[in-house]
Design goal:
229 residues; alpha/beta; 2-enoyl-CoA Hydratase, Chain A, domain 1; six-stranded mixed sheet; three-stranded mixed sheet; 10 helices; 9 strands; Enoyl-CoA hydratase/carnithine racemase; ClpP/crotonase-like_dom_sf; Enoyl-CoA_hydra/iso; catalytic activity
Length: 229
């Protein structure tokens, strides 16, 4: 269900299972992880084919799982989200249409989240007696704050692109999310990689500052003689 294409400095990764609203099976999750971690470009652009970004986990798969199988499936989804978060490339996600459950959770793991006006978001698992278990309960409060996260998760309500922008679930609402990925890819690849590492760093402030200074010095040395306005 995953298609990849390289265009210059951007690897386009497309969720391509539109007949199932790009819902994930185990093999689909593994394929996504391989596509993102295997990208050799400085930027990955993640998008969905068809009318939806992703419905998350395929409920036909989930329904047939026993307890240990369900745990394993959740851990697989968590590993994919973590792989996106820790990928060498900057991962930009373009959400055009509905993102539900695991689709929201995978988007939360991306470095830059961009929506079109047609995008909608919901954590609908609570209405089914479930919840998103691909790391969303940890990432959602960090992205939108505890109050907004509680509201979204416990109500299962749907928010549109404008509300998602207001709460910080996405950083931009644009007609062509791919253009954002292309703009980011126009920057220095080494600086992009360093910035992602630094902005993702969860060490204490003193350690962060030391790592920041070291990374800055490395880039200055690397680009010696080429720096100009």
């Amino acid at each position: 269900m995953i298609e990849t294409a390289v265009d210059g400095d951007v690897t386009r990764v497309t969720l391509s299972r539109p007949d199932r609203r790009n819902a994930f099976t185990e093999s689909g999750l593994r394929a996504l992880r391989s596509a993102v971690t295997g990208a050799e470009t400085p930027v990955v652009f993640l998008t969905g084919e068809g009318a939806a970004f992703s419905a998350g986990a395929d409920l036909e798969v989930v329904t047939g799982l026993g307890h240990e199988e369900a745990r394993t499936f959740a851990q697989l989804g968590q590993s994919v989200a973590t792989a996106i978060e820790e990928a060498e490339a900057v991962v930009v996600v373009g959400i055009d249409g509905p993102a539900r459950g695991g689709g929201v959770e995978l988007a939360l793991a991306c470095d830059v989240r961009v929506a079109t006006p047609a995008a909608t978001f919901a954590e609908t698992g609570v209405s089914l007696g479930l919840f998103g278990a691909w790391g969303g309960t940890a990432r959602l409060p960090c992205v939108v704050g505890e109050g907004e996260a509680m509201d979204l998760a416990l109500s299962g309500r749907t928010v549109d692109a404008d509300e998602a922008l207001r709460m910080g679930l996405v950083s931009r609402v644009v007609d062509e999310p791919a253009a954002v990925a292309e703009t980011i890819a126009g920057n220095d690849p080494a600086a992009l990689s360093v910035l992602k590492r630094r902005l993702r760093d969860d060490a204490d402030r003193v350690v962060q500052h030391a790592r920041e200074a070291d990374a800055f010095a490395d880039l200055v040395e690397r680009n010696a003689g080429d720096l100009s306005w």
